[in-house]
């Protein structure tokens, strides 16, 4: 069968991937499907939108996590909002310096199906430092003032379940949840398809709460446009383009210091 991406269709095109459906369930929040593809390993889809494939998920998860973690020299408490597949947590548990990882995923079914079919991605969820909460991340952070060193918003696209994570009041609450010199990184769409959102609305309201708001990107072949980006926000104490050479991480497929620095260099047409 042919798998298509519903979000990509809104841009007048679609990605088609050959594969077979191996599991499906309808949760309280969304339709969840897992496919075994011909070329990209297993594929996770939520409400018709491709979330990841085993082939290139590391390109996304490593860049979402290691850019802020290599920017902050002493992160001890980290919050992941969303990220039910467990990929962000898998990367975070590589840091022995991290003492607490809280993950808030509203849809427990995403976590369950990922544990069942994506063990190489969800494996970090069993780490003793990980606390898993199934509730609304936007509400969760309101009860954790001045608490986290790094917050990672691994959200779906800005509609349905993920819509509240693209609103101004959410980032006002995130600012309050961060400790001094804290950093937040959020999934921020493709610079080729969503430049008006990224460099307009999102940057405008995030700049009300953070001195530094910068966009960087990674290459994910199975995502619309082949790229996906992130906004990294902070008080500017750390230079996000200059990673600290503090950690010796193993088993990295995509991230390195050169890729880190280069990911902030954007084409003229989207700056």
Task: Fill in the keyword field for this structure.
alpha/beta; Spermidine Synthase, Chain: A, domain 2; Rossmann fold; seven-stranded mixed sheet
Return the string of H and E elements.
EHEEEEHEHEHHEHEHEHEEH
Helix count from the secondary structure assignment: 9
Structural class: alpha/beta
Classify the beta-strand content into a percent band: 25-35%
Overall morphology = globular
Please compute the radius of gyration using only Cα atoms: 17 Å
Provide the number of structural domains.
2
Helix content: 25-40%
Q: What is the CATH architecture descriptor of the largest domain? A: 3-Layer(aba) Sandwich
The CATH topology name of the largest domain reads Rossmann fold
Low-confidence stretches: none
What's the overall average pLDDT, rounded? Answer: 90
Q: State the end-to-end distance.
A: 39 Å
Main beta sheet strand tally, sense and closure: 7 strands, mixed
Describe this entry's structure for a reader.
The protein has 271 residues and is an alpha/beta fold. The protein folds into 2 domains: 2-53, Spermidine synthase, tetramerisation domain (Spermidine Synthase, Chain: A, domain 2), CATH 2.30.140.10; 57-270, Rossmann fold. Helix content is 26%, strand content 29%. It has 9 helices and 12 strands. It has helices at 6-9, 57-71, 87-92, 108-117, 119-122, 137-140, 168-177, 195-206, 257-262, and strands spanning 2-4, 16-26, 31-37, 42-46, 49-53, 77-82, 100-104, 130-133, 148-154, 178-187, 212-219, 227-234. It has a 7-stranded mixed beta sheet with strand order 8-7-6-9-10-12-11, with helices on both faces. Strand 4 and strand 5 (49-53) form a beta hairpin.
């Amino acid at each position: 069968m042919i798998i298509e991406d519903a979000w990509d269709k809104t841009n007048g095109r679609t990605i088609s991937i050959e594969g077979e459906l191996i599991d499906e369930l309808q949760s309280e929040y969304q339709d969840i499907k897992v496919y075994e593809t011909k070329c990209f390993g297993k594929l996770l889809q939520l409400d018709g939108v491709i979330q990841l494939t085993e082939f290139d998920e590391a390109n996304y998860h490593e860049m979402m996590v290691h850019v802020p973690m290599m920017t902050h020299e002493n992160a001890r408490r980290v919050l992941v909002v969303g990220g039910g597949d467990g990929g962000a947590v898998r990367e975070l548990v590589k840091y022995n310096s991290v003492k607490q990882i809280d993950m808030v995923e509203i849809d427990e079914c995403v976590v369950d199906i990922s544990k069942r079919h994506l063990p190489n991605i969800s494996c970090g969820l069993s780490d003793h430092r990980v606390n898993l909460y199934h509730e609304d991340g936007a509400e969760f952070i309101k009860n954790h003032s001045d608490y986290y060193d790094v917050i990672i918003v691994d959200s779906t696209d800005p509609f349905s379940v993920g819509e509240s994570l693209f609103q101004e009041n959410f980032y006002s609450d995130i600012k309050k949840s961060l400790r001094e010199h804290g950093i937040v990184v959020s999934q921020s769409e493709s610079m080729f398809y969503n430049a008006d959102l990224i460099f307009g609305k999102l940057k405008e309201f995030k700049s009300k709460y953070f001195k530094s708001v910068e966009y960087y990107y990674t290459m994910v072949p199975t995502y619309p446009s082949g790229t996906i980006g992130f906004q990294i926000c902070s008080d500017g104490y750390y230079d996000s383009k200059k990673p600290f050479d503090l950690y010796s991480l193993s088993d990295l497929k995509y991230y390195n210091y050169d890729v880190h620095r280069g990911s902030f260099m954007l084409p003229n047409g989207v700056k």
